[in-house]
Amino acid sequence: VIMSRVMGRVGRLASSFRRSSTGGAMQRGLPKRWPIAGVKHVVVVASGKGGVGKSTTAVNLALGVAAVDKSLAVGLLDADIYGPSVPRMMNLSGQPELSKQDLMIPLTNYGIKCMSMGFLVEEKAAIVWRGLMVMSALQKLLRGVEWGHLDVLVVDMPPGTGDTQLSISQQVPLSGAVIVTTPQDIALLDARRGAEMFRKVDVPVLGLVQNMSCFVCPSCGHHTPIFGEDGAQRVAEEMGTEVLGVHIRFAGDVPLHLSIRETSDTGRPVVASAPDSPQVSSITSPI
Asked: Quick one: how far is CA 204 from the chain centroid?
């Protein structure tokens, strides 16, 4: 009896979701989007699954935007509450100070203002929180930071299409989303789901980044497509007509290269530490 009641409730929720996911019904149910104080444009970097190099892409994208146009003020928000990566990748540590308005002051390195849950807990501490606590922490990161003036805020989203992604997409006016994937079919399936989620909340998908497109041998420079070839490009072309009804740009290939991994692990992102390397051009060329 209990199971039948549970299944009935799930069925009603699913039916309600299907109705709300089409056209005006969903739009009427969306909460009002409030801008982040001082921030002109918010771009989220998302992925349908973990392990595709989303955080590495987000960090180097923020640095790349600042490098391409030095007049822009750029920030980086780590929205992955359970697995914050920005402190290590940006070589930052310590708790943020508070302004007179009791807002957290971002930590800065390489000219990028950064905020992360990783600044508020020990690096090795496990964050074992239920959904309500996660949402409360997310609101603090979104609304409780003194960003000052920012032209672009890059948000490193957690993987998947859960509460955090929906909350940010529905509560903050987003200029667009960049979806990171790898060439293999399993990752591409999840990339499609991520793009579909953004479509449902009226967030434009700026492009797909195909990370780890090929392995570059550090000795001879030979390229080996370990995970397959051109998967993201095919998906972008298909989604441009079949899923979103608008053109989704294939933003480019980022190779699986030793220097990108090493510089990320040591807090010296490749865009900042080796700006003239071929790996950087693969990251910054689509910007």
From this structure: 14
Q: Which two tokens stand for residue 62?
A: 């923020």
- Tell me the pLDDT tens digit for each residue of 135-180: 999 999 999 999 999 999 999 999 888 889 989 999 999 999 999 8
The whole-angstrom distance between residue 35's C-alpha and the CA centroid of its chain comes to 18
H-state helical runs in 162-277: 163-171, 185-200, 231-242, 258-265, 270-273
Q: Where do we find the tokens 């509560």?
A: 171
Per-state percent for the chain, helix, strand, coil, to nearest 5: 40, 20, 40
Task: Decide: helix, strand or coil at residue 235.
Answer: helix
> Sign of the CA dihedral 82, 113, 207, 265?
negative
Which own/partner contact pairs does 120-124 have at CB distance under 8 Å and 24+ positions apart?
Answer: 120/95, 120/96, 123/87, 123/88, 123/93
Any idea what DSSP says for residue 119? G
DSSP label at 146?
-
Concatenating the DSSP letter of every residue in 64-78 gives HHHHH-TT--EEEEE
Q: What is the pLDDT of residue 252?
A: 58
Q: How many residues does the chain have?
A: 287
Per-residue burial over 24-50, b = 16 or more CB atoms within 10 Å of its CB, e = otherwise: eeeeeeeeeeeebeebebbbbbbbbbe
For residue 5, pLDDT over 70 is answered with: no
Give the tens place of pLDDT for each residue, 42-82.
Answer: 999 998 878 888 999 999 999 999 998 999 999 999 999 99
Residue type, 269: P
Residues sharing a CB contact under 8 Å with residue 24, sequence separation 6 or more, in sequence order: none
Question: At 136, which helix (H) or strand (E)?
Answer: helix 131-143
Q: Tell me which DSSP letter residue 118 carries.
A: G
CA-to-CA distance for 196 and 147, rounded, in angstroms? 30
Q: What are phi and psi of 188, to 5 degrees?
A: -65, -35
Tell me which DSSP letter residue 285 carries. T
pLDDT of 66: 93
